[in-house]
Amino acid sequence: MVVAGCTRCIKYMLFFFNFIFWLAGGVILGVALWLRHDNQTSNLLILQFEGQQAPSTFYISVYILIAVGAVMMLVGFLGCYGAIQESQCLLGTFFFFLVILFACEVAAVIWGFMNRDTISKELINFYDSAYIKAVDVSGSPSKDAAIKVLDAFHTTLDCCGKGDDTALFRQVATTLCPRKSLDDFLKSQSCHDKLIELFSEKLHLIGLAALVVAVIMVFEMIFTMVLCCGIRNSPGVY
Which of 66, 145, 150, 234 is most buried (CB neighbours < 10 A)? Predict the structure, then answer.
């Protein structure tokens, strides 16, 4: 152990923040796996209609989150070990990966902010395409498949219709929403609003996690630089 005084305090603070970072990686990995297997999203994103799969943009975001959580756990372990061993090589490698992760996180947050409505809009368009076929009175060959798709939406989200439903839809509402009476249908929330609400909640959760991790990473980068300088300037290091 070559460091002393304030530098030793920085060493243990860096170890503590790295341990928190490692735990945060585990939490993010767990949340991502929960989002991947959440019943509401899974029931909607496995749907197919007229050979078209439901949009999977949300799953792409979740897979990126899984990878980030796993890398964070690896980098957190590297930081903890480097701090305890007082290794400039390990700390330098840790700092390099930390900067890369921070840059990727900033880029992901910017992309997510710019495309925050894309996921719900894609699913709303998918819902509307089935909705048009389901209320078609001409007997479209895909009508039964459309009704099944709408039933999955209505059951999962506890909604019915898209909010501005025509008199024609009200006539077939008992078929498309068999679990709701006419009074329930009139009081029920539109599926458009439910889809926006569903993915807004999940994206806010992801954004909050990203903010907490970013704050931890900033402190870690500062402590890592201070500790490396302290190790380099210690009397026992040449």
Answer: 150
Domain count of the fold of the chain: 1
pLDDT averaged over 10-residue windows placed end to end, the chain, 238 residues = 67 84 86 81 75 74 83 87 82 87 82 77 86 72 80 81 67 66 59 83 79 85 83 63
Its pTM stands at 0.70
> Which residues are CB-neighbours of 61 under 8 A, at least 6 positions away?
112, 119, 206
Helix (H) or strand (E) holding 54: none
CA distance 151 to 41: 15
As a whole number of angstroms, the distance between CA 27 and CA 230 comes to: 32
- Identify whether 94 is part of a domain: yes
**What does the alpha-carbon distance between residue 149 and residue 145 come to, in Å, rounded to a whole number?**
6
In the beta sheet, which residues pair with residue 49?
52
- Residue 238 in any domain: the answer is no
Q: 230 exposed, middle or buried (CB, 10 Å; 0-12, 13-18, 19+)?
A: buried
